[in-house]
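User: Could you go from structure to sequence for me? I need the amino acid at each position, not a summary. Structure tokens:
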């Protein structure tokens, strides 16, 4: 990962040091983390010693395996993505975060996969315990019940999305390209993204029947809307996007993405059509036809 401001070496040093700290506090062995990231242990050792740079996907894998965020690993203070509630604490940004314990984190990841594939109503605590290789009592030690565990899987989905945004958007200075990439990262295309969307879709269904004010989800969605809005405002500031009410434009764009995403998730629309519809909307309503980039 390069840095346009000439601070790449410094960021590499921060990432290396923080990767070591994340590994140390994760309760996982170097071999386990390497396997989770998808690289051999030798490559991980080189990265941890500063002789090899972590790739973007490796940073994402490391953050997921150890329970920290990509933003913390990079020492990143950029505003490319609004920060989720649970990561907004005003404590020292250099302090090593306290990740979930490995057993709790593994239970959440296992439940996340089962809920995404089979649905909240179908999956039992016993199913999660069996898949995670733990007892029912172990799950109840960390969670009040299935609903509490589902809420944890929603937080996990939010973390995955936040990590992707920080990892991939920080080096894209062009607001138009950044918005396109942001929407791509949040699209229900690919196994992980489809699982996230399944969790979000089930959350929407539950909130439609329950009191939405008792859930953190509205705040999570507001964070996502803020990210889109900030990107639109950046594009408006340099003339790439049309002038107008950035909040309304963000609302309309995220609503379109939601609707198209549900169609993809339910098989009504294919990925290629999804991308065409989204691109067409951006050109018709967001992108300034008189901008230098659009006319080039």
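Assistant: Here is the amino acid at each position, in order:
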């Amino acid at each position: 990962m390069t840095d346009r401001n000439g601070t790449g070496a410094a960021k590499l040093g921060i990432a290396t040091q923080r990767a070591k700290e994340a590994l140390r506090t994760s309760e996982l062995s170097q071999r386990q983390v390497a396997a989770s990231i998808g690289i051999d242990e030798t490559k991980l050792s080189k990265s941890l010693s500063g002789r090899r740079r972590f790739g973007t996907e490796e940073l994402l894998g490391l953050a997921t395996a150890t329970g920290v965020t990509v933003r913390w690993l990079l020492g990143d203070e950029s505003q490319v993505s609004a920060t989720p509630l649970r990561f907004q604490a005003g404590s020292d940004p250099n302090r090593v975060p306290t990740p979930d314990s490995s057993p709790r984190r593994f239970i959440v990841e296992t439940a996340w996969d089962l809920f995404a594939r089979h649905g909240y109503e179908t999956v039992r605590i016993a199913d999660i315990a069996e898949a995670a290789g733990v007892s029912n009592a172990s799950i109840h030690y960390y969670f009040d019940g299935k609903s509490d565990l589902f809420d944890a899987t929603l937080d996990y989905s939010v973390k995955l999305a936040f990590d992707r945004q920080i990892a991939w958007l920080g080096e894209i200075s062009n607001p138009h390209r950044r918005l396109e990439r942001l929407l791509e990262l949040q699209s229900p295309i690919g196994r992980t993204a489809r699982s996230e969307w399944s969790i979000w879709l089930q959350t929407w269904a539950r909130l439609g029947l329950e009191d939405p004010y008792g859930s953190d989800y509205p705040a999570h969605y507001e964070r996502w809307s803020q990210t889109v809005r900030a990107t639109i405002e950046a594009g408006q500031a340099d003339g790439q996007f049309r002038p107008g009410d950035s909040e309304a434009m963000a609302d309309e764009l995220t609503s379109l993405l939601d609707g198209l995403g549900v169609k993809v998730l339910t098989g009504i629309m294919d990925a290629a059509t999804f991308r065409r519809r989204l691109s067409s909307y951006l050109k018709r309503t967001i992108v300034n036809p008189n901008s230098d980039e659009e006319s080039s």
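One structural detail worth keeping in mind: The chain is about 65% helix and 0% strand.
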